Amino acid sequence: MDVLDQLGAVREGKLSRRKFTKGLLAAGVALTTMPVAARRAMAGPEDQPTYFTWGGYDIPELFVPYQAKHGELPNFAIFGGSEEALTKMRGGFVVDVSHPCNQAMPRWVATGLFQPVDPSRLSNWGDVMPELVALDGNDAGGGNIWMAPFDWGQTSITYRTDLVEVEGEESWDILWDPKNAGRLGSLAAGADAWWIGAIKAGVPFDQLGTEEAFEKIAAVMREQRPLIRTYTDDTTTLEQALASGELVAALTWNSSAALLRSEGVPVAFAKPKEGALTWVCGVMIHKDAPKLDLAYDVIDSLLSVETGKFMINDYGYGHSNARSFESFDEEMLAGLGLSKNPKDVLQSGHFQIPQSQEWESRMNELWEQIKAGF
Amino acid sequence: MTDTSLLPDQTADAIAPRRRGARLTAMLHRRESLRGYLFMSPTLAIMAVGIVAPFILLLTMSTWTRQGFDFDTTPTFANYLRVWSEPIFGALMQRSFWISGVATVATVLVCYPMAYFVAFHVHKHKMLWLILMTLPFWTSYLLRVFAWKVILGYEGVINSGFLALGWIEEPLKVLLYSQTAVIITLAHAWAAFAILPLYVSLEKIDRSLLEAATDLGDGPVRRFFRITLPLSMPGVIAASFLIFIPTTGDYITPALLGGPNGQMIGNFIQLQFGPVNNWPMGATLSIVLMLWIAAIGLAFLYLTRVARKRLA
């Protein structure tokens, strides 16, 4: 019986008031439950895999080939730092694909939570730059790898060219300059900030584990803390604050500078004379990935040229697919702090090297205490 | 013949359950406490599964220690000793108690007049007034926190308003990313939890007592302090508890608005379960926090009781 029919029945006095109310109730229930179902379908239905990634990577532009093939986006789960992500997965959160960086990858592998990636199942594998695959601890044996490289870039200073005076060469000192007190921002995760401390303190990355290194880095981080307005893992917060002039400089990745520049904010992504922090991130497959075939399609989509062009052009990150760089000239890439040869960039800065779990825990513990003011 | 032989069995079967049922009814009639427990059983079950069991887990975990990726499960008080000996934990707890204490006092002070007005001066549509007052709380907590970020922000409502009026030269920075921001937001976010208990306790006050006080020569101020305030103390106490306990462990507001100096113990506990990856320490901190809240609550109750006796 449809609605009009019911209304007619009421008018003719055939339908009791109680029955009509019941009809209304049913309609109400239907109305309230329908949008929920529809919304779920839009957010990503249950037959799609879950991609557990950094904020900002949950956008359709990175999944054009995937969407063309499957008609929908994968499901997204977001983390702010890779230690947080690992802790969640160790706590039982099962995803299909996740997104660590080279420094964390051996520790992720050591948890036994991941399965090797078989490159022969990826159609774009032939174009992936080999130097990004050959990372410490990435060999899973039998031609397999643990992490398929996806993006690479730098952690450096995004600063307002109109609000910060740089004398001479750009330097990490910008983030330690008392003139900028209360107008500096920083990424909150130790996976970035602590390493910057090491560069600032002049500690080589192969000596990070020594007692002296911990003391030296802690000292520079404590020196910086009173100058910092906010530590956050949310890059949007930093970008908005830089755009409004609330912050004049912040520790960010490439994308913040690229996004702000595209909006016409006068910012520069510094090339500090001490060297920036460089890294390669990639994707790993969970050992219990419920949708393994689709997981490979997610990875293949991330490695595609379409995705790569977006990553370079809009986010200013390097991509692992060599062909992604073909439509960009050297000059434009240099402006973004990139190069067709990733080694040029990765080796011009300080490339992160994997550390032990003990080191990671100790560093994070100390870092959180310093951030809290101790 | 077969029929009659079956008969006794059948009757016995039919009577037995009735008798058992009758015994149960009789027992329920006789034992009041049993009836009470029966009524409470759904709640008790939820309490056991949702509170007691996790608490035991927490207590057990707090005696473990972290070891690389795993836990060393030999029981030890090492974590408690660390909480005792390292100043950071005490300092963060103190800060949390200070922030949520100020927020509690502010909320009760702001909400008391509102509840007073509805209880004494509104005669029609009281429900509507209450609903209107608590309307902002129909939105999500997170939305309210972000709303305050917009109000207090660098280019926020307050700063741009003051700038337009020419009261300030450049935006005030203390508004956001400070303890003040956390206190303001907490005080607003939990206001509904103060208005309702305050209203109920004020509404219950016998109006004839107020008339008697006036007849005996008390002015409005004296009458308020001698009659209204003491009689509404249960509401004040309930409101204080309802706000103080959850805000001490709050972590969303300080995380979004607190800045480096506005971080509270809740943030530190969250970090233990996240990047710091020291779950036993997080469990220990949670338990110590619970003990402290209980102690402060008891002290507060005792003080109000003493104060009431003095007044009486």
The major beta sheet of chain B can be summarized as:
2 strands, antiparallel
The geometry of chain A reads as globular
* N- and C-termini, Cα separation of chain B: 84 Å
Low confidence ranges of chain B? 1-8
Helical content band of chain B: over 70%
Overall geometry of chain B comes to globular
Structural Rg of chain A: 25 Å
Radius of gyration of chain B: 28 Å
Mean pLDDT of chain B: 88
From the N-terminal CA to the C-terminal CA of chain A, the straight-line distance is 70 Å
CATH superfamily of the largest domain in chain A: Periplasmic binding protein-like II
Outline the low-pLDDT stretches of chain A: 31-43
**Secondary structure category of chain B:** mainly alpha
Structurally, the number of domains of chain A stands at 3
Number of helices of chain B: 15
Provide an overview of this structure.
The complex is a heterodimer of chains A (374) and B (312). Chain A is an alpha/beta fold. Chain A folds into 3 domains: 3-43; 50-152 and 281-336, Periplasmic binding protein-like II (D-Maltodextrin-Binding Protein, domain 2, 3-Layer(aba) Sandwich), CATH 3.40.190; 154-278 and 354-371, D-Maltodextrin-Binding Protein, domain 2 (3-Layer(aba) Sandwich). Chain A is 42% helix and 17% strand. In chain A, strand 1 (50-54), helix 3 (64-70) and strand 2 (75-79) form a beta-alpha-beta unit. The longest helix of chain A has 27 residues, at 17-43. Chain A is globular and about 55 Å long. The N and C termini of chain A lie far apart (70 Å). In chain B, 77% of the residues lie in helices and 2% in strands. The radius of gyration of chain B is 28 Å and the shape is globular. Chain B starts with a helix and ends with a helix. The chains are: A alpha/beta (374), B mainly alpha (312).
